[in-house]
Amino acid sequence: MNTRMTRQIVVIGGGPAGLAAAAAAKKNGAEDVLILERDRVLGGILNQCIHNGFGLHTFQEELTGPEYAARFIRIVEEQQIPYLLSTIVVDLARLENGRIAVSVMNRSEGLFVIEAEAVILAMGCRERPRGALNIPGYRPAGIFTAGTAQRFVNIEGKMPGREVVILGSGDIGLIMARRMTLEGAKVKVVAELMPYSGGLKRNIVQCLNDYGIPLKLSHTVVDIKGKDRVEAVTIAEVGPDRRPIPGTEEEYTCDTLLLSCGLIPENELTGKLGADLSPVTSGPVVNESLETSIPGVYACGNVLHVHDLVDYVSEEASEAGARAAEYVSGKDCAAGEPCAIRAVDGVRYTVPAVLRIGKMRERQVIRFRVGEVFRDAEVVIELDGKSYRSVRKKIMAPGEMEQVILPKKDLEEIKPSVITIRIRTNM
Amino acid sequence: MANQIRELTCIRCPMGCQIQVTLNEEKEVVNITGNTCPRGAEYAAAEVTHPMRTVTSTVKVIGGELPVVSVKTAGDIPKDGIMACMAAINQVQVKAPVHIGDVLLENAAGLGADLVATRDVEAI
Ligand SMILES: Cc1cc2nc3c(=O)[nH]c(=O)nc-3n(C[C@H](O)[C@H](O)[C@H](O)COP(=O)(O)OP(=O)(O)OC[C@H]3O[C@@H](n4cnc5c(N)ncnc54)[C@H](O)[C@@H]3O)c2cc1C
Ligand code: SF4
Could you check whether the bond before residue B97 is cis, i.e. omega within 30 degrees of 0? Predict the structure, then answer.
């Protein structure tokens, strides 16, 4: 195995995050950018998200997933940014000279190493596998993750089944409930373990309510019948401890069970590199520049934290690309002392988790998610324990990403060493 | 009878704004609040009188690198016409190559919107 080439910036993943990051890096002066994508095409998960609702904020137009991807692919081609398809990154390691060794494999070249000055992680996420679900009984055919079913129907043109029960109300599950109904299947019920939906409100409205598909909150699958193929699924209500309540069982005959139980950032490589990972998001811990704990390694999109809005993915990825371009140009300005951002009282995590005031942009976006549903609550920002600002929100839910904006000039003046973001309820 | 307020979730984009529509006794829209952008107001006004939806699906491709191509109605159609639209979509077959934006069916099911391809599928 020998080093075949050196590159200024290597982007891992050719989904919307990788495409926007590469385009922004090039636009900000990086000459030598390369995208590595393991699939046969660019575009990532968007290729199978054929529904509309992408890009309204970026393009002021409502696009489908493939159309949104095509816009960014065109930009990358116009900028003549090279990419390698069917090429998978298998390992990352930090070299003594501070560069990153990217180990890559593809059919035509075998295994080779690219030495990169900076790396942008944009590998997206994967679905929680069914093994992680605690369903007793056999494992007959007819059980799919919702994303696998989406790929079958939308790319391969095959229907996984005709009578469907869906466990989990993540967006992919909701989207597939509608998709399979449109193709003539009967979706009997969507069961969600939690007392709230994991998906976007709009998807409950236009994917379930529009078609009269019931959503049962605080419910889970307790039994699957059928040896070769799923024949029926039993659903029961769960108590506050999330354990099934005896006597609430209901049986649904069906031939297909779709699992839509959440997404996890794809961070095997990030872990191998030794970057700090957040136990909450499973993504790397990043600073204001979207840089991981390894200098010169940036992260954006679903590999960093799961996004429900592709527009935010593109925005975040453009910033990562611009920062990586600054890094390789050597024109890095003084960073200043790092200031930690603490997520407490209902705030699960923040991205970034660390701010270096010297490196902030004029307006720093802090994205976060809450851990439960809050109505008429306030997002409170504290600098060194003193209340700095609060924002009222009519409703906040775990399924929707929130954000607050911090102006640089205020932080330069106050120079806090800890920023705290919490939710204050009226009680 | 006084004015009536209806709570809606805007579905025009994933922001999902909560919109309040005030209707008067004649069921006319007199006020709309809670929308972040003008599209939200447009949505809310239509939703309480004649709900509209975009339909997305796939169409069979003959001789292409993929067996199906993703499609959408180029504009919204009435919500109660969705199944008729699907029936029309399922009758369509196209020969590769297909390109993004190609019209595959004009005025699908007579509902006022063309069916267009949303991706490229090259011939093999
Ligand atoms: C089902 C679904 C529905 C959605 N609906 C909407 C919506 O309606 N509106 C909206 O705005 N947003 C929506 N989103 C969100 C948005 O589409 C995603 O957040 C966005 O696509 C994430 O982009 P990404 O580039 O981070 O990840 P991805 O698109 O997953 O791209 C990651 C890429 O990295 C590649 N890769 C991974 N590992 C390696 C490796 N080791 N080597 C090389 N390549 C690798 C993968 O093959 C993939 O192409 C939806 C998401 C999903 C999953
Ligand atoms: S009002 Fe505008 S921003 Fe809000 S959901 Fe509707 S389209 Fe999106």
Answer: yes
